[in-house]
């Protein structure tokens, strides 16, 4: 592949990575307003490093759920990274320690910037540029957001409780491309809201995961590509 | 709390590593693939609902500034606003409504 196309891949990846890396600011602020301390918030970004799962753990715990329920929600959301890995494995072609490092920066954005490339060299360029840039920015901005969030007083006065819902909606938005996914989203939201008065905090989210299971199993096969 | 942070963090890493390591045929079954695709949608939608509708002390539903802020978030997403504008715009709107 020519240098020009490689440079284009790196440039596009940097654009996506810089835009995404700054979300860490909102995760940091949300983390401390959910009752995590600054260190726990930062360790989530360092160790878990997958935004939706981090928001889920903070959201469930912040709403009064147990740490177990928060961890389970985070893990269930993390399963999609397994799918990304399956798609990327033949494309990246890594073994041993390179694979172990690559796994850590395997997230929505690094997958998206790698998966559509015509060859291995460009796929690797997109993957590493995006993954590593986001990792660095995400952790810096998490720290900033967490420290700032802690200085700012009651999170409700700042509307930070409303920010969490908005963050989840923004993460959900690009996934609502098919009729099936919109149906699942509506059903899951209704089931979760219905379960709030009936179950301990944190459980409604896990119950709603059952909707994905039911719809996935029951729906006729032709709907898959809708 | 710490052990949940560490265990979930490690677990999420292992889920990523598993994808790069297991043979692809595990997910070749169409129903497995479809359920795996839909799980993030269901969880995120449920998190939106709980985050916006559950009363702060838990155990009941409550309609307040959070719902109005979510409506603004949806509008901003329709207008293709960037993530941070959506998140902090909704927070500012909720804060403003509570001041009024």
TrEMBL record, chain A:
Quote the InterPro entries the UniProt record gives.
Brnchd-chn_aa_trnsp_permease
Q: TM spans, by residue?
A: 12-35, 55-77, 125-146, 158-176, 183-199
Under the heading Pfam families, the entry gives: AzlC (PF03591)
The reply on keyword Cell membrane is: yes
GO cellular-component terms in the record? plasma membrane
Organism expressing this protein natively: Nocardioides caeni
- Annotated protein name in UniProt: Branched-chain amino acid ABC transporter permease
The record's Gene Ontology biological-process terms are: L-valine transmembrane transport
Q: Which UniProt keywords apply?
A: Cell membrane, Membrane, Transmembrane, Transmembrane helix, Transport
Q: Which domain of life is it from?
A: Bacteria
Protein's membrane topology: Multi-pass membrane protein
Q: Which family does it belong to?
A: Belongs to the AzlC family.
Question: Would I find Transmembrane helix among this entry's keywords?
Answer: yes
Q: Where found in the cell? A: Cell membrane
Q: What is its main location?
A: membrane
UniProtKB/TrEMBL annotation, chain B:
Task: Identify the keywords attached in UniProt to this record, alphabetized.
Answer: Membrane, Transmembrane, Transmembrane helix
Q: Which residues cross the membrane?
A: 38-55, 67-97
Q: Which domain of life is it from?
A: Bacteria
InterPro entries linked to this entry:
Brnchd-chn_aa_trnsp_AzlD
Q: What is this protein called?
A: AzlD domain-containing protein
Supply the source organism for this entry.
Nocardioides caeni
């Amino acid at each position: 592949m020519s240098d020009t196309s490689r440079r284009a891949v790196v440039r596009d990846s940097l654009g996506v990575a810089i835009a995404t890396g700054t979300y860490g600011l909102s995760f940091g602020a949300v983390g401390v307003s959910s009752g995590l301390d600054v260190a726990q918030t930062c360790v989530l970004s360092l160790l878990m490093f997958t935004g939706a799962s981090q928001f889920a753990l903070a959201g469930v715990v912040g709403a009064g759920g147990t740490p177990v329920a928060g961890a389970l929600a985070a893990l269930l959301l993390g399963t999609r990274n397994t799918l990304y890995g399956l798609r990327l494995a033949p494309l990246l072609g890594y073994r041993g320690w390179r694979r172990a490092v690559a796994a850590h920066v395997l997230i929505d954005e690094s997958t998206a910037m790698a998966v559509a490339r015509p060859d291995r060299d460009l796929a690797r360029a997109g993957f590493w540029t995006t993954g590593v840039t986001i990792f660095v920015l995400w952790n810096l901005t998490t720290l900033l957001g967490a420290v700032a969030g802690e200085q700012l007083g009651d999170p409700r006065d700042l509307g930070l409780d409303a920010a969490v819902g908005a963050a989840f909606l923004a993460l959900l938005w690009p996934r609502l491309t098919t009729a099936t996914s919109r149906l699942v989203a509506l059903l899951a939201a209704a089931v979760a809201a219905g379960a709030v008065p009936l179950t301990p905090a944190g459980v409604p989210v896990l119950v709603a995961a059952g909707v994905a299971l039911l719809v996935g199993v029951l729906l006729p096969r032709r709907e898959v590509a809708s | 709390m710490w052990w949940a942070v560490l265990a979930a963090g490690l677990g999420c890493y292992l889920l990523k590593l598993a994808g790069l390591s297991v043979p692809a045929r595990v997910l070749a079954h169409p129903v497995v693939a479809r359920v795996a695709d839909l799980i993030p949608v269901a969880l995120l939608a449920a998190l939106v609902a709980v985050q916006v509708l559950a009363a702060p002390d838990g155990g009941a539903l409550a309609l307040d500034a959070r719902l109005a802020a979510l409506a603004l978030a949806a509008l901003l997403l329709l207008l293709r606003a960037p993530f941070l504008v959506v998140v902090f715009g909704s927070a500012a709107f909720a804060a403003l409504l509570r001041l009024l």
